[in-house]
Amino acid sequence: MAVPKAREPTVTLRVSGDSRPRVREGPIPERVITVLFNEGVEGWRRGWRQYGGMPTREAVVAASDLTRGAAATTQIAPDGRLAYTVLGAPVGTDRVLSSVGDHLSGTDASDVHLIVDDIAPVLANRGAAAVEAFICRLRNQFPDSIGTVTIGCSIDAETDPEFASIFDLVDTVTGSEPIIGENIGKLRRDDPTTFGYVRRHWAEAQRGIEACNRNYPQSKQIHAMLSEPETTPRTLGATLSGLVTLDVLETWSETVGPTRYDLTAYRAKRLWEVGIYFARLASSRGLEHTEGE
């Protein structure tokens, strides 16, 4: 007889490039475990007020350096509605997950909502691989207790391009500016082939651009910076052309030969917004087959 597969939590990634990720939007869960990498306990608890209330019970694991008190201590509020563990920073994600397990131990809850305020400090300090491992362990370690997970991530121009791989590990992605959606929609209508290349290869184009040390390279020179690429110089060129249309790049006009791209005008944050938009569409199954693949 086959053994039923363990239930995994549903994971939502909420990405923001202009403010703290809005990880508390939606109905307030009754029981919550919150992991803080970028906020203190006091500030986090005050933040619930703008959402009209607080969870009935919340356990907080504070892994930032913004919470007052000694490290590695656990406190329970007199009314029993709040328990918090202060780990301090820096601390490994294994320790964080162990503390999450401690708060779940002995409870009869079967559908706790877990919130991560902002995974960006882990991404910056330990890299995308550490974030991937953290998400995978959240999925696999607490299948009987945690029903949903919401993870926030602040992005900026310096965000590691390898972060794009994390989009494939979550069930839903939210974020990106509305104007990006309008521009991508126009590209899709006007040039569906180029749209298809951008959709499929934006992350590889991003890695090539970030690795290139030339100010005005041709697509083949950007392509040469990639290790084991999926693209060819031609398909990468088509992708870069689409990014020009989306105002991520500009072309250098002082040439009569092959197109050169002006990387001095590269808008890294805007490219992240493009990628987030595509990840959001993919997670909602909003992309059917498109030419140019």
Q: Low-confidence parts, pLDDT < 50 over ≥5 residues?
A: 1-5, 287-293
Percent helix, as a range, is 25-40%
Largest sheet: 8 strands, mixed
Count of DSSP-assigned helices: 9
Q: Which radius of gyration do the C-alpha atoms yield? A: 22 Å
Order of helices and strands: EEHEEEHEHHEEHHHHEEH
Beta-strand content estimate: 15-25%
The residue-averaged pLDDT reads 88
Structural class designation: alpha/beta
Major beta sheet, strand line-up: 4-5-3-2-6-7-1-8
Looking at the structure, what is the overall shape?
Answer: elongated
Distance between the termini: 42 Å
Strand segment tally:
10
Kindly describe this structure.
With 293 residues, this protein is α/β, with parallel strands linked by helices. It has nine helices and ten strands. It has helices spanning 41-47, 93-104, 120-126, 128-141, 178-190, 192-211, 219-223, 233-245, 268-283; strands spanning 10-16, 31-36, 57-62, 73-76, 82-86, 112-116, 146-154, 172-174, 250-251, 261-262. The chain has an eight-stranded mixed β-sheet. The chain has a two-stranded antiparallel sheet with strand order 9-10. α6 (192-211) packs across α9. It is elongated. Residues 1-5 and 287-293 have low confidence and may be disordered.
Protein traits:
disordered C terminus, 8-stranded mixed beta sheet, 9 helices, two-stranded antiparallel ribbon, elongated, disordered N terminus, 293 residues, alpha/beta
